[in-house]
Write a structure and sequence with these properties.
The complex is a heterodimer of chains A (235) and B (421). Chain A is α/β, with parallel strands linked by helices and 235 residues long. Chain A has 9 helices and 10 strands. The mean pLDDT of chain A is 93. Chain B contains 19 helices and 6 strands. Classes of the chains: A alpha/beta (235), B alpha/beta (421). Bound molecules: adenosine-5'-diphosphate (ADP) and magnesium ion.
Chain lengths: 235, 421
């Protein structure tokens, strides 16, 4: 996936001001920055949800602006703080979602895989409204990856979760990546990206201020963690 | 105490928002201007306008004539019933009173004198029915004056003839139809069934399904399920169509249940009254029901498309609730106007306003079909078709734009900046 000189304005306010990133096949790329940095905006543009103000985004050679329908076939987007249809059971929700991607046997195995990923056991047949936050997030992540997208775009996949739930999600993301899925995620938690992401970009006020592997960045600034890199660069 | 004061203040600030005040002001405005447009035809306190045909010319007929001349506004006086009817229609009068040949001699011979009343119902709303009442007052006055004359003559007629020397038989003219031997109250009672029920039920169906669509949009936004939906490999048009058709089916089921109920209800009603409206062509045939069905479908589609457009601006479930307001208002204005009055009796401005609201057309469809007012029916169908297509087009456009996810916040900011320039 390639983002070239991406600008996105809300009216006169510049939310993303010249973004350049590449996500290589099979890697986990982290977009890190404080609240309001423009992470969600950038991910929404890449996910075909918002119109590009200027610049270019290509996903596996497909142009997001001119071929959004093709792009949607190969990506999965997990919105920040997303929910699922509350009156459906977890199983029905996954089944409904799978209907857009496959049919027959293929759809059945997609559903089976999704249910396995949720790790919800018999609670998969309870209504989503009875789920805890961690359970809902697992369901949504399962939805995002069960379709085997070539690129999964996850907006703050672990935010608001307790340490155990967050770790489960991180392990799941790692596993998917090891199976060859490219992952672009955002986070404002600098510690988590450090051992989750292969490469990171630090974003602030809509512009990238630094990028590289976590180790590169730490040694470049001679600090112990990414958070310190951030304070070094911004401060 | 001061705590309570603070809470009350906060509650009032939350409840008395523009969103809650505007509908009340709009309703007040509608009723206010309706009042002035009605004042021309509400003549309950003024003398009735009538036509008078005297086919008798005897002494008692002269008493009737002088009573009528003294107590009403006479727009026709002559000996032709046809001319009289025409004059009544042309002048929007209340009734044509006909003194039947032999009126005076009948009374002299100890029989009731015969009169014929051709009531003219200008419309079928509640206000029009009220204006019939003052002609009844005039008829009572005629009987009183005849009684006085008989007593003064000392002709020794039977007591019941003396007290009530005149009997009138009723005929009703509604719009361009005529029903002989039928009291206008019976006609208006039958027509009122659908004239009041239809607008209320259409209003309810619209508000109900409109609420469903807007709330579902609000819910989808609140849970970010809409964002997920929009990144799935399905076209925007399919999403809009899916949502519209889903809700339209629900709406049609409601509407269908109601139509069946209405049919049964009207049948039982006309069976229980002495008159059979079908005898006068005042019933619906299969084609009429098809027209009503199509009209309902188009209206529901328009309502849903409007709601989808409004729902697109909802930020969450709560803000979606307040967005149902414009639709509720749009459904309530024609409902009240049609219940109270009749489209044809409104001022031209009101007619234009009502015609422009797509929900008006099914509300008055039954009446227009009964009275074969095809211009309004076909005009309404064409308008609703155009309206629903246009709103669906706008809805799809919105689903393809950023507005759906970002709301109008920044656009307003942009507009303000543009205006400053
Ligand atoms: N719908 C919107 N309208 C106007 N401004 C917005 C909108 N959404 C986000 N913004 C602004 O864009 C900037 C980036 O926001 P966002 O992408 O949500 O940041 P992040 O996800 O990094 O917290 C912020 O300044 C935010 O206020
Ligand atoms: Mg965000």
């Amino acid at each position: 996936m390639e983002v070239e000189d991406l600008f996105k304005n809300y009216g006169d306010r510049v939310a993303v001001g010249g973004l350049n990133i590449q996500v290589k096949e099979g890697e986990i790329f982290g977009l890190i920055g404080p609240n309001g940095a423009g992470k969600t905006t950038a991910l929404r543009v890449i996910s075909t949800l918002l119109q590009i103000t200027s610049g270019r985004v290509r996903v596996f050679g497909l142009d997001v602006d001119s071929e959004p329908d093709e792009v949607r076939k190969i990506i999965s987007y997990l919105p920040e703080d997303a929910g699922a249809y509350k009156n459906l059971t977890g199983r029905k929700y996954l089944d409904f979602m799978s209907s857009f991607f496959a049919s027959g046997k293929e759809r059945e195995s997609m559903l089976k895989k999704g249910i396995e990923i949720t790790d919800l056991a018999d609670r998969i047949d309870s209504k989503v409204e009875t789920y805890s936050k961690g359970m809902t997030r697992r369901l949504l992540i399962a939805r995002a990856v069960m379709t085997s997208p070539r690129l999964a775009i996850l907006d703050e996949p672990t935010s608001g979760l307790d340490v155990i739930n967050a770790k489960e999600i991180r392990d799941l993301v790692k596993k998917m990546s090891s199976e060859g899925m490219s992952i672009l995620l955002s986070s404002h938690n600098m510690f988590e990206v450090e051992f989750l992401c292969d490469r990171v970009a630090l974003i602030n006020e809509g512009v990238i201020i630094e990028k590289g592997t976590p180790d590169e960045l730490k040694s470049k600034y001679g600090v112990k963690n990414i958070e310190e890199v951030f304070t070094e660069v911004v401060g | 105490m001061s705590d309570i004061g603070g809470i009350i203040k906060k509650e009032l600030r939350e409840l008395l928002t523009l969103q809650s005040i505007i509908p009340i002001m709009v309703m007040a405005l509608v009723f206010g201007s309706l009042g002035t447009s009605f004042s021309g035809m509400d003549q309950a306190s003024q003398p009735p306008i009538v036509g008078l045909v005297d086919l008798d010319g005897g002494e008692y007929a002269d008493i009737v004539t002088s009573t009528v001349l003294n107590n009403s506004d006479v727009i026709y006086q002559g000996i032709s019933i046809e001319e009289g009817k025409q004059a009544v229609r042309d002048n929007n009068a209340g009734a044509l009173l006909v003194i039947v040949d032999g009126f005076s001699s009948d009374i002299t011979d100890n029989r009731s004198g015969q009169m014929e009343i051709y009531w003219y119902m200008k419309g079928t709303g509640i206000m029009e029915t009220i204006s019939l009442a003052n002609v009844n007052v005039l008829m009572a006055e005629i009987n009183t004056n005849l009684s006085r004359a008989i007593i003064a003559d000392g002709s020794g007629l039977d007591a019941n003839i003396t007290l009530s020397p005149m009997v009138a038989s009723d005929n009703t003219m509604v719009k361009d139809k005529e029903m002989d031997g039928v009291n206008p109250m019976v006609v208006s009672a039958v027509i009122d069934q659908q004239n009041i029920m239809m607008p209320i039920l259409i209003m309810l169906v619209i508000v109900l399904i409109g609420g469903i669509v807007i709330s579902s949009m609000g819910m989808e936004k609140e849970n970010k399920t809409l964002e997920t939906l929009l990144t799935l490999p399905i076209s925007r048009t399919s999403i809009v169509a899916g949502k519209l058709i889903g809700a339209a089916v629900v709406g049609l089921i409601f509407g269908g249940i109601y139509m069946i109920g209405l049919g049964v209800y009207l049948q039982s009603f006309s069976a229980s009254t002495s008159i059979d409206l079908s005898q006068y062509g005042l019933t619906l045939d299969a084609l009429d029901y098809v027209v009503i069905g199509v009209m309902m479908f188009l209206t529901i589609l328009s309502a849903l498309a409007i709601c989808m457009i409004l729902g697109a601006f909802a930020k969450n479930y709560k803000s979606a609730q307040s967005l149902t307001l414009p639709v509720t208002l749009l459904a309530m204005i024609p409902m009240f106007v049609i219940m109270l009055s009749d489209f044809s009796n409104l001022s031209i401005e009101f007619q234009v306003l009502l015609f422009a609201i797509p929900f008006t057309h099914p509300m008055m469809a039954i009446e227009n079909l009964m009275f074969d007012n095809w211009t309004l029916v076909i005009g309404g169908l064409a308008y609703n078709l155009a309206f629903s297509l246009a709103t669906i087009y706008v809805a799809v456009r919105i689903f393809k734009s950023d507005v759906l996810l970002t709301g109008l916040g920044w656009t307003r900011e942009k507009l303000r900046k543009r205006m400053r320039r």
